[in-house]
Amino acid sequence: MGFIKFVVPMLTLYTLFFLIPLVQTIYYSFTDYNGINPKLGWIGLGNYKAVFQDKYFYNSLLFTALSALLFMAIINVAGFVLAMGLNRKIRSRNILRAIIFCPFIFNNVTVGFIWQFLLGRLMTDLYPLTGWGIFKIGWLSEEQLVIYSVVLVKAWQAIGYFMVIYLAGLQMLPQDPLEAAAIDGCGGWNRIFKIILPLMRPTSFVCLFLAITETLNMFPLLMTLTNGGPGHASENISLYIYNEAFKSHRMGYASALSVILTILVLIVAILQMRLTKEGDE
Predict the structure, then answer these.
(1) Is there a contact between 158 and 82 (Cβ–Cβ < 8 Å)?
(2) Cα-flanking dihedrals φ and ψ of residue 162, to 5°?
(3) If you placed Cys at 104, which of 116, 161, 210, 273 could pair as Cys (CB 3.0 to 4.6 Å)?
């Protein structure tokens, strides 16, 4: 009886806020629902056919994939380097850790507005005063640069979080192999690449897939930082779904996009579980 009392409330919330919206989204994906007119027209697989003929869908998918790969590379390398540096006994290391971690407590919307001001208006104002070419660059207005700007802003926000994870991994390493390496004269880069990194493989797997999760959660940051611009250059898949649903009023089409995104996320989750299991073994 106690078990039922514990399960039923959670199962009710799960049904109301996950299962019903999921079924509703799948149903809408087969209709021409526009989000306003309650009358629905059944179009079958029409939305799904349109998705795979939509160049902006492929553009958003490519941006999501490239930003994820770029973010994974930057955040894991920088996070590990900072963790190695701040794992040493140096003065004010706790203060430095707190300063680096601090941006992570800001929400994505706040970070987007801050960096929109810094990379936009402030840069424009500083160029006439200094004449430096770096202030003339359109970090958020040039299609070739905007992906790097977005990823670096996200990395600035999240680097402290990944640093803390790597710090925890470093502090949990078994000391016997490290002491044996020191006795044998193994130091510097050999110590890092041949001993520390192999021992930290489970931590690295966690950080890699957390990086993927962070890039999939970039919708609020992109919304405030670039709004998908210039054009569709910084529009990831989540922002594209939002624009199709609430700006173009193509709720049925956006529902089809959401179903496809859900399938892609499930594939990534399955790969994550398999690779994590292999890494643990």
Answers:
(1) no
(2) -70, -35
(3) 161
